[in-house]
Amino acid sequence: MPRTWLDGAVSRIEADFARSADTHLVALPMPGNIDLFFKDETTHPSGSLKHRLARSLFLYALCNGWVRAGTTVIEASSGSTAISEAYFARLLGLPFVAVVPRTTSAEKRAQIEFYGGRLHLVDSADAVYEASHRLAAATGGHFMDQFTYAERATDWRGNNNIAESVFNQMALERHPVPAWIVVGAGTGGTSATFGRFVRYRRHPTRIAVADPENSMFTPYHASGDRALVTAHSSRIEGIGRPRVEPSFIREVVDEMIPVPDLESIAAMRVLSALLGRRIGPSTGTNFIGVLALRRRMAEAGQAGSIVSLICDSGERYADLFDDGCVAERFGPGLAEKVESVRQAVL
Asked: Which residues, listed in sequence order, are joined to residue 38 by a DSSP beta bridge?
């Protein structure tokens, strides 16, 4: 079969990558001998960390022969991956359907549609899988399935992945090799990339996953039981899953840090103020993990650096900057949590 369309599709994705600059590593000044940095993934063309994943997934599917000219692409997502995949589908002229929970923010839904994607809403996070398979069968399309393929679509040894970028950008800092890298887990692909990379490069860096309520990743990390499931969905969009996803590689994660949801929202508010711009709730979850490890290192008299991620912009979550909406969704006590996070920063 002629590969003319495939060659053009890969070339368009590679050209898009060549036009895009690397994301910044933002220093967060803090007192003491522990330096904090955040890799700012909001500057990707589609606005989040998931831009990297979507590019890798499309290249993986194209080169495996799963996506051809005219193929309808379907993805199960809580929003950000679907936005990024809609971006690449439009780039290639492909129909795209995003299977997302009804609780997905209005801002994310609008972005999916802006890039030409069609929304298929389901009632809960655990309903996205069956609906995606059903749509792929009905359309003769391809279910991209980020939850299965995230860890294998990315070259974790290097080739401009996020881990290699972070270590290159840290080279001139006073603690160039991070003591910890803190990430969240939706698919588990990011923690797998960092975990494998530091082992491959023989860095002593450890990987921590900050995990929200109603996520099966933390109990799975402790027990090794892949059959764990819950009927509850994570309220922190983009991270935490009701089942153990295939791309989450337990063995390369050194520590799980469970984070109460209201603390994630409080930390989102505090870090937004420190950075002078709004960041999303999963970054707030990361920040709680960072502060916990910073405190532990300080108490042990250790110096070093901790790196985490700014996953997406707070502009995608306008309701979470409204105290009334937060109280309705997460309960009372936000002001006290915000003050607690502020004190942890000092």
From this structure: 26, 308
| Separation between Cα atoms, residue 202 and residue 8, nearest integer Å | 38
Helix (H) or strand (E) holding 308: strand 304-310
Give long-range contacts, CB 8 A cutoff, 24+ apart: 57-62: 57/85, 57/144, 57/146, 57/149, 57/150, 57/153, 58/13, 58/85, 58/88, 58/92, 58/144, 59/10, 59/13, 59/153, 60/149, 60/152, 60/153, 61/142, 61/144, 62/6, 62/9, 62/10, 62/13
Q: Which of 99, 133, 150 is the last residue of a domain?
A: 150
Q: In terms of residue numbers, what domain contains 64?
A: 51-150
Instruction: For residues 228 and 177, state if they share a domain.
Output: yes
- Rg (Cα) of the chain, in Å, rounded? 19
Measure the CA–CA gap between 58 and 310, rounded to whole angstroms: 23
pLDDT at 92 over 70: yes
- The β-bridge relationship of strands 73-76 and 142-143 is parallel
Distance CA 38, CA 166 (A): 9
- Specify the range with the lowest mean pLDDT, choosing from 2-6, 81-85, 213-217, 222-226: 2-6
Same-domain pairing of 206 and 305: yes
Last residue of a domain, one of 107, 124, 150: 150
